[in-house]
Structures are given as C-alpha cells and as structure tokens.
Amino acid sequence: MDRRAFIGSMAIGLLAAPLAAEAQPAGKVPHVGYVTSSGRSVNVAVFDQGLRDLGYTIGQDVIVEYRFGEGHNDRVPMLIDELLRLKVDVFFAPSPQAIRAARQATDTVPIVGVDLETNPVEAGWVKNLARPGGNITGLFLDLPELGGKLIQILTEAVPRLQRVAVLWDASVAASQFKATEGPARAVRLKVQSLAFRQSEDFTASFEAARNQRAQALVILSAPSVFLNLKRLADLALQYRLPAICVFPQFADAGGLMGYGPNITDLVRQAASYVDRILKGARPADLPIQRPAVFKLAANMKTAKALGLTIPPSLLQRADQVIDP
Q: Which of 27, 153, 169, 290 is deepest in the core (most CB within 10 A)?
C-alpha cells in the first residue's frame, strides 16, 4: 500500500474508532494481562510508564497481571488460560508466540501486540492493516526491505566481505531470514544459516559460524535476542565476528552495529492502544501500525577491538556513535 494512503487510512480509522467515556462498569477496576514468551525486561517498566503517562495509577485504577514464559514457548498457552480465568479485559502481548497463543485461546478478548517478526495479514490474524476486523491490533514490523538494509550496512563496514552468517529464531523469523538471504545472495555473498530455538543454542551457533569461516554476522529479531543482547555482543567479540542486529540497543550492549526500530518506543505506543480499548475502542477498528523510525547505532570501541575502520560516510548516517 502507498505509504501516504496507509497513513491517511490509519488516521481515519483512529478518528472513527468508537470511544466510550465509561467503558468499564462503575466500580470495576480494569485488568490488563501482560504475557510474553520471554522473561521480564525493560519493556515492563516502559509499558507501565506508558500507562502512567496516560493518567493511570497502576494497582488502583488499572491492574496489570504479568506472566512470563522465560523462554519456554510451551508455557505460553497455560499462561494465557490463567489470565482468561482471571477475566482480563485486554491482553498486551509483546511477542509473536504470545499473540499466537492468545488468538488461539480467545476471539473475544482484545489483544494488543508488538511483533517484529510476523506479517499479521499473511498469518491470517487480521483482515487488513487499516481495519483489522477481529480482536487483534497493535504494532508489527515485517518489513522485507529491512533485511537488505542490514546487508548493505554490513558490507559498507566490513571490507571485502564474502561470507556472512545469519542468526535467526526458527520459531518466528523464517520470513525475516528469507528477506535477508535474498539481498545477501544478490550481492554475491555466501550465506550461512544459524537457526536456533532457544538461547542455549547461541554458543553452538557461533562455533558453527567460526567453523564455516564466516566473516560477519547478521542477527535478526526475536524476543530471546532482545533479552540477550549483551550475551550476543560478548560472543560476537569473543569469536571476532563483526555483527549487526535489528535492535539498535545492540551497539549499547557492546555489539558493532544495530539498525532498526526502537522496541521500547513501540511498547510505549502500544500502551496507548490498551488505553483506547479500555475506554471502549474496538481492536477491529484500530489500524495496525508499522514502525516509522529506524535508527542506526555504531560502537567504535568494538570496531577498534575488531580492527575495523568504519567509513566516515556510514558514521555520518548514524543516529548514535558510541566512542571508545
């Protein structure tokens, strides 16, 4: 869809979404079910602050029930069922596994998702972006061109790059891998797939990259990746692999570069969708949003440790440069 047309339709949808000043029965404190396949992260504090910024006092005029899968995807359906028994008014699901499990468990309780891995239309979760038409809305990435951008930035930073490894979560990021593999092969890079299913697989993945003589690494998004940015940055340095990750915070954690949307900004925006639903808006009428801002971050200390000189033309485009 043309970007301007989509923005227009999104604005119309937001204006048209019904809002009720008293959506909750008098005296009833609304309950939000926060459920994710990963563990507790900074996103919990960001979400809570988002609600506070909208005028809520957590524990008084809204109760948030937190449930964490701690990296065990098979636990998520049980957590969803537990929250349904508590009769939550809306789910906040900041992971694809949680969105999928919530959708399978209910078609009536609203679900606000943050998902950087899934195309919600192709997955059959919503009818279209402008008017989802069901009980799911939120913020979704799935921008295929992002994979090509990661490859482009990496080839600028690493001279004479020929072999690149791609680390991706096999449970959620297959489309991301395909969208990254294609542009890499288009510029004649040899691509090594490093698919993992749990964070315990990371070290073995780096060993495989070294054994296949990978010269650089692309790390695609997944909840487990976001929770382990420092560990992945340390492994990349240990194995001397220049790495770029979809999360800009990867550079803060000690990785070479990060390029993509800021997940904490998306979580903050999602809090406003939860607010609208608690006030009477229907998720069917709230347009799916796409991240609009992408940031490039580079860590010069890591570049120095890897013996790399980041081209000035690339540094000039960076939103954040972390100096030694």
A: 169
* Tally of domains within the chain: 2
Same domain, residue pair 132 and 71: yes
**Per-residue tens of pLDDT for the chain, all 324 residues:** 443 343 344 443 443 333 333 345 556 899 999 999 988 888 999 999 999 999 999 999 999 999 999 888 899 999 999 999 999 999 999 999 999 999 999 999 999 999 999 999 999 999 999 999 999 999 998 777 799 999 999 999 998 999 999 999 998 888 899 999 999 999 999 999 999 998 999 999 999 999 999 999 999 999 889 999 999 999 999 999 999 999 999 999 999 999 999 999 999 999 999 999 999 999 999 999 999 899 999 999 999 999 999 999 999 999 999 987
| 296 beta partners | 259
Tell me: do 307 and 169 sit in the same domain: yes
Residues 114 and 197 in one domain: no
pTM above 0.90, yes or no: no
CA within 13 Å, CB half, 38? 22
> Do 91 and 163 sit in the same domain of this protein?
no
**Domain span including residue 27:** 3-141+262-285
CATH code at position 237: 3.40.50.2300
State CA 283 to chain mean position distance.
Answer: 20
DSSP letter string, 236-303: HHHTT--EEESSTHHHHTT-SEEEE--HHHHHHHHHHHHHHHHTT--GGGSPPB-----EEEEEHHHH
